[in-house]
Amino acid sequence: MDVTVKGWVRTFRNNQFIALNDGSTNNNLQIVVDFENTDPALLKRITTGAALSVSGRLVASLGKGQSVDVKATHIEILGDSDPEKYPLQPKKHSLEFLREIAHLRFRTNTFGAIFRVRNTLSFAIHTFFQERGFVYLHTPIITASDAEGAGETFHVTNFDLANPPKTETGEIDFKQDFFGRATNLTVSGQLEGELGAMALSDIYTFGPTFRAENSNTTRHLAEFWMIEPEMAFYDLKDNADLAEELLKYVIRYALDKNKDDIEFLSQRLLDEEKQKPQQDRSELNLLEKLQFCLENDFERLTYTEAIEILKESTPNKKKKFQYLIEGWGTDLQSEHERYLVEKHFKKPVILTDYPKEIKSFYMRQNDDGKTVAAMDILFPGIGEIVGGSQREERLDKLEQRMDEIGIPKDELWWYLDTRRYGGCPHAGFGLGFERLVLFVTGMGNIRDVIPFPRFPKNAEF
Ligand code: ATP
Ligand code: MN
Fold first, then answer.
1. Would you give the end-to-end CA distance of the chain in angstroms?
2. Relative to the CA of 377, which ligand 1 atom is closest?
3. Does the pLDDT at position 149 exceed 60?
4. Distance CA 297, CA 230 (A)
5. Residue 148 above 80 pLDDT?
6. What gap in Å lies between CA 8 and CA 77, rounded to an integer?
7. Over the stretch 53-87, which tens digit does the pLDDT of each residue have?
8. Helix, strand, coil percent values for the chain (each to nearest 5)
């Protein structure tokens, strides 16, 4: 069969064998060049990184490692790549270095695999919800509300920053700004999502989210993608069931669709872990870990039960935690979440019913007067991957809580209206997409699972 193939040169050996890759898989196509009958000037231009179009005959391969070769009859250089200057040499580069050349890192096996898996996961998410009749709702990216009242937002303004208009009292006069008020990039689409759910029943959002949190961690980005389903007539248990089903569905989907890539990433992780001392290595390889996650029920327990476990845990007693668990009421740090998941239960955990003081105003108050119907899902190696709750549908309770913590009710009049007109029990959650991709690819840093990461002091590309 005669074929024409196009791609980029990964390597060129002995003036004879081109490993060509077009990004559809990590398996390169081997091109066999009849070098004796090829112009030496052309051979010289077949360099790592160059883009080629090759015509030739598809034949059974004589070599090991591939089933077919293309015996080239015509080679056209579509784009040269200077081998002296090309930053991606055919050798092992560190992930840190590749982050600096993120415009080229797609061309490595590792990042090819990551971004194919990322693509599959995002498609799987839509498929999951669409199969269940959820409506994909586009919530605004520019908003005037800071859903949690947490701060951490990026301002959106049209002002000349050197000279913004001022009020008589000397404050910046946002009334004169583009939207006639102070606005910011969204930190969550939930509040608007709830409005949709109060008519469409089941909705989900899947869009970019922005948080100006100055946390230089391996799990936080300033721009990340979040999936936020919101369901009318769901309680906390329904919510947890849906989240567990979703996570299992998309992991299975990726395992089916991207087996080769996940196997590649699993091997990558094994190689990386060889550098670590034995006790820091994972007990399961990536494939086993994903399989394990599919085959086991997530452990469900309350915050109160978790605190008891943590209080009695060895690292707490031996003062190994950076933040010691003193008693009920403190927020859990990532080290505690990971202890529960990785050491104690050794599987994903769904923690529910947190103290109301450490959770958002919209979470439904439990009868004990102390806790709210919150739900976090904790994953090995990640910590929190999902944060959600049953929402407070009772207007009086909601208003009382907003007053207690000083959230202006007049600004959220539209949110409160849904409690005035046909409000009903409902629930939802937020799944951080990059944390999911981290888990499925076995990567260690969230900056490596989004094409162009945004984090403090970095917005290159
Ligand atoms: P964390 O405590 O880990 O900072 P959070 O409590 O602020 O998370 P939520 O506000 O509940 O998180 O957001 C829902 C989900 O969004 C989280 O469970 C997580 O998966 C993801 N997420 C939150 N902040 C970030 C971030 N800065 N970068 C990437 N993903 C994030
Ligand atoms: Mn956070």
1. 41
2. 18
3. no
4. 23
5. no
6. 10
7. 999 999 998 888 889 999 999 999 999 999 999 99
8. 35, 25, 40
C-alpha span between 121 and 248 (Å, rounded) = 11
Region 348-364: mean pLDDT is 97
Identify the residue whose C-alpha is closest to ligand 1 atom 18: 386
Task: Extract the tokens encoding 358.
Answer: 């450490």
On whether the CB atoms of residues 249 and 124 are closer than 8 A, the answer is yes
Ligand 1 pocket, residue 359 CB under 6 Å: no
Helix, coil or strand: residue 227:
strand
Query: Rounded CA gap, 269 and 450, in Å?
Result: 18
CB of 387 within 6 A of ligand 1: the answer is yes
Q: What is the CA radius of gyration of the chain?
A: 26
Averaged pLDDT score across all residues of the chain:
95
Residue nearest to atom 26 of ligand 1 (CA): 220
Question: Is the Cβ–Cβ distance between 121 and 114 less than 8 Å?
Answer: no
Ligand 1 atom with minimal separation from the 215 CA = 27
Q: Can you tell me which atom of ligand 1 is nearest the CA of 187?
A: 10
Ramachandran class of 58: left when φ > 0, alpha when ψ lies in -120 to 50, beta otherwise:
beta
Mutate to test the pocket of ligand 1, among 121, 214, 226, 458 (most ligand atoms within 8 A of CB): 226
For residue 278, pLDDT beyond 90 = no
pTM for the model stands at 0.96
* φ, ψ of residue 207 in degrees (nearest 5): -155, 175
Percent of the chain scoring above 90 in pLDDT: 91
The pLDDT, as a whole number, for residue 44 is 97
Length of the chain: 461
Q: How far is the CA of 154 from the centre of ligand 1 (A)?
A: 16
Q: pLDDT at position 151, please?
A: 65
378 lines ligand 1 (CB under 6 A): no
The predicted-structure confidence for 363-377, as pLDDT tens digits, reads as follows 999 999 999 999 999
